[in-house]
Amino acid sequence: MGKLFDICSKDGISFGGSKVKFRWKLMIVTMLIVSFSFGFGGMLLIQYSYEASIKQEKKSARGSYEMILRMLKEIDEMDDTYQNQTFVSVLKRLNRQRLLRDSSIRLLKEEDGVVQWKQPLYYNRENDNFRNSSGFSSKQGKAVIFKNKNKVFYQITSKITYGKETMVFQGSYDISEVYETRHQQLISFRKIFMVVIGMEIILSYFLASILTRPLQKLSQVSKQIADGDYSVRVSVNTKDEIGELSINFNYMTEQLVEKLMKLDQLLKNQEEFMGSLAHEMKTPLTSIIGYADLMRMENLSEEEQKEACGYIYSEGKRLQNLSLKLMNLLVLKNQEFQMKKQNLVPMIHEVISSMQYRLQEQKILVNLNLKPTICEVEADLLKSLILNLVDNSLKSMNVGGILTIECCPAQEGAKIYVSDTGCGMPKGELDKITEAFYRVDKSRSRKQGGVGLGLALCKEVVRIHKGNMEFISQEEKGTTAIITIGGGHYEKTD
User: Is 120 helix (H, G, I), strand (E, B) or coil?
Assistant: First the structure.
C-alpha cells in the first residue's frame, strides 16, 4: 500500500524528483507568464510608439527640408531680384526674411566639404547641430541620425545647383524629444512593472493556494490510506479535472479496499480449509493407525478383526475421496479435453444407479424428467458434475426428501436441473458456494465429510463446457441448481 502512494509526501506533491511544493511551482509559473506577457507587451508598445514618433519626425523634417529645396529651385528659375546671386546670399536673405526659422541648415563645397554658410536652429544656437563634415557623403537625399551633446539630430544631405554653382546642402533637425519621451516611458514602465510584480506575487500566492487546496486534501487522504485507514475519502465537489481526479481516486480506493477484502477473505478461507483438511486427514489417519495397532498388538476374534478392517477400509476410502477431489480440481485447471456427441440421459441414470444405496439409506424419493438430449460433452466430467450436485443435495437432506433431476435440449446445448427439498441456503451465500474451500454450514459439512470442493469442481466442469451454473435457494425449502452446457473443443486456461 505504501508504494501505491509514494508520489505523495508530507511536505507536498513531488514532481520529477523535485522537493518544491506544487503550490510554489504553480505560483512561479504564473508569475513568469504574467511577468513575461506584461513586460514583453509593455516594451512592444513603447517600441511601437517610439517607431511611430520617429517616423513622424522624419516625415516632418524631410517635408521641411524639401520645402527649402523647392524654394531654392524656384528662386533659381526667377529672372528678377535673386538673379546672379550666390547660394550664400540667397540663403542669408531667406534667413533674414525668417523663412528658415525652423530649420538648421548649412552649405558646403562639393569639392572639399568646406562650410560656406550655416544657420543653427533658433532655439539651439549654442550647439553644433551638424555631424562632423569630414568624410561627408553628398549622396542625394542621404539621411543619418546622430547624437551630439545629449541631443539627437536627423540630418539630410543633397546636392543642389544654383546657376553655375553646385553645392552640398544639409539640413539638421532636432528629434531629441522623441528619445526623451521614450526614456521617460521606460522609467514609468519600470515603476509600473515593479508594482505589478508585487501585486502579482500576492495574487498568485492566493490563486495557487486556492487551486492546490484540493490536491492537498488528496495528498492527506492518500497518506491516511497508506497508513491503513481505508475509510477516508476525498471530499472535492468541483466539476473540473481535479473533481474528476477526486472521483476516480475515491473509485480506485473503493476498488482497492474491495480487492483487499476479497484477498483477506480468500486467505481466511484458505486458512480455514487447511485447518479443515488437517482435521479431516487427522481423524481417519488416527482411526486407521489405532485399529491397525490394535490388530497388531491384540489377539482379536474374527468378528472384531472384521469390524476393525471395516473401520480401516471406510476411513481409507474417505482419505482417497478427499485426495481425488483435490487432484481433480488441480487437473481440471490445466488439462485439455476432447468433446464427443453423446446422449445425456444414460449418464444421469448411471449416476443415480451408483448412488442407489445412499438414496435408499436416506429414504430419498427420486423424480426424473429426462428428455433425449444429445450434445458434445466429456462423459466422465459430466458424470462428475451430476454426481457432485446430487451429493450436495443429499447432504442438505437428512432422512426423507425429494430429489428431482430434469434434462432437456437447449439452444446452445443442454440444460440440467438438480433440485432438492433440503435445508436451503441464505441468499447471501449463493455467490460464494462455488469458491474452493467455502462451506455454508461448516459443522454439518465436516460431519458429513465435506471440505467445500464439490461445487468448485462443478464450476470448473461447467467452464470447460463453456456453460453457466446458477443456484436458486430458499432456507428450509430447498435448492435448485441450473446447469447450461454447450459443445465443442475447449482449451485449457492459464
Answer: coil
pLDDT recorded at residue 345: 92
Are 355 and 366 in contact by the 8 Å Cβ rule? The answer is no
Beta-bridged to residue 158, according to DSSP, are: 169
Residues 6+ positions from 141 with CB-CB distance below 8 Å? 156, 157, 158
Cα separation of the two ends of the chain = 27
Determine if the pTM surpasses 0.90. no
Cα atoms in the 13 Å half-sphere on the side-chain side of 69: 19
In the predicted model, is pLDDT for residue 125 greater than 50?
no
* 421 close to 477: Cβ distance less than 8 angstroms: yes
Strands (E), 163-277: 165-174
Question: What would the pLDDT profile of 347-356 be if each residue is shown by its tens digit?
Answer: 999 888 888 8
pLDDT at 420: 92
The residues near 62 (Cβ < 8 Å, ≥ 6 apart) are 143, 156
Q: Where are the domains of the chain?
A: 1-227, 233-332, 336-485
pLDDT of residue 19: 60
CA atoms within 13 A on the CB side of 312: 14
What is the DSSP code (8-state) at residue 235? -
The band of 234, judged by pLDDT with boundaries at 50, 70 and 90, is confident
Q: What is the mean pLDDT of residues 364-387?
A: 87
C-alpha cell at 164: 553655375
Distance CA(340)–CA(385), nearest Å, equals 16
Q: What value does the mean pLDDT of the chain take?
A: 76
Collapse the DSSP code of 155 into the 3-class scheme (helix H, G, I; strand E, B; otherwise coil) and give the result.
strand
Tell me if 116 sits within 8 A of 108, measured CB to CB.
yes
Is a pLDDT exceeding 50 seen at residue 70?
yes
CA–CA distance from 442 to each of 448, 451, 452 (Å)? 10, 8, 9
H or E stretch including 156? strand 151-162
- The Cα–Cα gap between 180 and 175 comes to 9
Could you tell me if 436 and 452 are in contact, meaning their C-beta atoms sit under 8 angstroms apart? Answer: yes
Taking residues 117-124, what's their average pLDDT? 55
Q: Specify the residue for cell string 532636432.
A: 174
Q: Which CATH superfamily is domain 336-485 in?
A: Histidine kinase-like ATPase, C-terminal domain (3.30.565.10)
Q: In the predicted model, what is the mean pLDDT of residues 311-338?
A: 68
pLDDT above 50: residue 11 = no
Number of helices followed by number of strands (H, E) in the chain: 10, 14
Own/partner contacts of 426-433, CB < 8 Å, gap of 24 or more, are: 426/475, 427/473, 430/471, 430/473, 433/471
